[in-house]
Amino acid sequence: NNALIDPVYHSTSNGRTENSEDVWGSRMPYLRSVASTWDRQSPKFRTSVEVPVEAVTALGGAGAIQQVSTGGDRELIRGLEYTSTGRLKTVQIAGRTISSIDLRKALNLPSTDLTWKVSGEKVIFRATGSGHGVGMSQYGARGMAEEGRTFEEILKHYYTGVEVKAAY
User: What is the Cα–Cα distance from 23 to 112, expressed in whole angstroms?
Assistant: First the structure.
């Protein structure tokens, strides 16, 4: 239909890109999940981040802080919903439900594909990928280019059903 797309991109996927509705709530037909195996070459494919327990409990509100201060259950974080690509969608912190996007922003985590464990006074998050995961993966595109794929092949891979046309 000759409409321009919003060509969103991210650094590194977890091996699959994400569907737009799982991150932003609205379904865009060209922002569908696709395989991106080249991302495994990225230094950002698997990372760990240590966060003080207090920073996590603050997200859970007064109940979480009380739970920790009284030596209660240290299993403060629980994954509730996951996307089809394995990324966390919603999480519960001491009974309070928040989106994984809010968790990622609040704690400055690299992605929403997360596992975690409490260790002493810190929570160690292990992340796969970097960024929101929607659209073109920069490391995936790099890997495709290194294999000899053209820019058009790369764009058509990451943006489902698009046509690449000259704008003049």
Answer: 10
Counting beta carbons within 10 angstroms of the beta carbon of residue 13, is it exposed (0 to 12), middle (13 to 18) or buried (19 or more)? buried
Spatial distance between the Cα atoms of 79 and 132, rounded to a whole number of angstroms: 18
pLDDT score of 59 more than 90: no
> Can you tell me the distance from the alpha carbon of 94 to that of 62, in angstroms, rounded to the nearest whole number?
9
Statement to judge: residues 111 and 152 lie in one domain: no
Mapped onto helix, strand or coil, the DSSP state of residue 87 is coil
Residue type, 103: L
| 46/52 Cα distance (integer angstroms) | 20
168, part of any domain: no
Q: Which of 51, 45, 43 is nearest to 16 (CA)?
A: 45
pTM here is 0.86
